[in-house]
């Protein structure tokens, strides 16, 4: 790959997973740069990155996913990357799919490519997937287009999106921002990927938080997003 590609790896208390995540990137996507954004972790995440010579940025306090992701996008923008990919630190994503996502962006002209678990496969029956289906319906209702895996955390952004996310504080790596950008004409595509179970630790999204998140995103897409403006 001749393009400059950056994998942004937001990490909060991921000492058990960060080595396998970075080594997966180095082994299976050797032409892709990466930066770990240590989001104010209270464990040894930053220390491990320092000891192993990983490229990382440490935030003094926990800024949440949006803050960590935006930090990575600013890094990508300042260093002139052609693409940036959001890549979770918990070991669920596979770096082997990154070339396919870049290929899809170049072939389709999409500014955002989602690594989709459900592009060619059906969603399983579960409370979380019911929430995902609801968000898909809200996006279709407000944009007229279908995103089969709106909650996927593996997304590729082109240079125009890197600049936008680096400069706009009101955008984040969430489905409501996706719907907002789609209504403004941003082309979004999906490619099928397989995702692993979290390798260690626990997700911050338990059942209660998952339901709350899905409802909040749906309301934002349906109502609040219509009042958002870009600078």
Can you put this structure into words, describing what you see?
By secondary structure, the protein is α/β, with parallel strands linked by helices. It is 42% helix and 16% strand. It has 8 helices and 7 strands, in the order βαβαβαβαβαβααβα. It has helices spanning 18-28, 45-52, 64-78, 98-108, 127-143, 159-167, 175-183, 207-222; strands at 5-11, 33-39, 56-59, 83-86, 112-116, 155-158, 188-192. It has a 7-stranded mixed beta sheet with strand order 3-2-1-4-6-5-7, with helices on both faces. Helix 2 links the parallel strand 2 (33-39) and strand 3.
Which key phrases capture this entry?
231 residues, alpha/beta, seven-stranded mixed beta sheet, 8 helices, globular
Short overview:
The protein has helices spanning 18-28, 45-52, 64-78, 98-108, 127-143, 159-167, 175-183, 207-222, and strands spanning 5-11, 33-39, 56-59, 83-86, 112-116, 155-158, 188-192. It is α/β, with parallel strands linked by helices. Strands 3-2-1-4-6-5-7 form a seven-stranded mixed β-sheet, with helices on both faces.
Radius of gyration: 17 Å
Query: Span from first to last CA?
Result: 33 Å
Number of strands: 7
- Biggest β-sheet strands, sense, barrel: 7 strands, mixed
Shape: globular
Order of helices and strands: EHEHEHEHEHEHHEH
Q: What value does the average pLDDT take?
A: 91
Strand content: 15-25%
- Our count of helices gives 8
Which strand order spans the largest sheet, edge to edge or round the barrel? 3-2-1-4-6-5-7
Q: Residue ranges: pLDDT <50 for 5 or more in a row? A: none
| Helix proportion range | 40-55%
Which structural class best describes the helix and strand composition?
Answer: alpha/beta
């Amino acid at each position: 790959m001749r393009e400059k590609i950056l994998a942004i790896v937001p990490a909060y208390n991921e000492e058990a997973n960060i080595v396998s995540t970075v080594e997966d990137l180095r082994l299976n996507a050797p032409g892709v740069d990466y930066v770990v954004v240590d989001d104010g972790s209270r464990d040894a995440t930053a220390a491990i990155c320092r000891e192993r010579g990983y490229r990382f940025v440490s935030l003094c306090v926990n800024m949440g996913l949006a803050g960590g992701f935006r930090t990575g996008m600013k890094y990508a923008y300042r260093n002139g990357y052609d693409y940036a990919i959001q890549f979770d630190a918990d070991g669920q994503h596979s770096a082997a799919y990154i070339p396919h996502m870049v290929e899809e962006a170049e072939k389709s002209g999409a500014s955002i490519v989602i690594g989709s678990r459900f592009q060619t496969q059906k969603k399983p029956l579960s409370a979380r997937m019911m929430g995902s289906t609801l968000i898909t319906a809200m996006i279709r209702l407000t944009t007229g287009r279908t995103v089969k895996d709106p909650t996927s955390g593996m997304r590729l952004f082109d240079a125009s999106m890197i600049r936008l996310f680096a400069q706009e504080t009101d955008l984040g790596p969430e489905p409501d921002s996706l719907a907002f950008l789609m209504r403004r004409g941003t082309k979004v595509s999906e490619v099928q990927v397989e995702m692993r179970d979290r390798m260690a630790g626990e997700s911050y999204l338990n059942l209660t938080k998952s339901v709350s998140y899905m409802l909040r995103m749906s309301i934002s897409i349906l109502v609040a997003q219509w009042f958002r403006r870009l600078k």
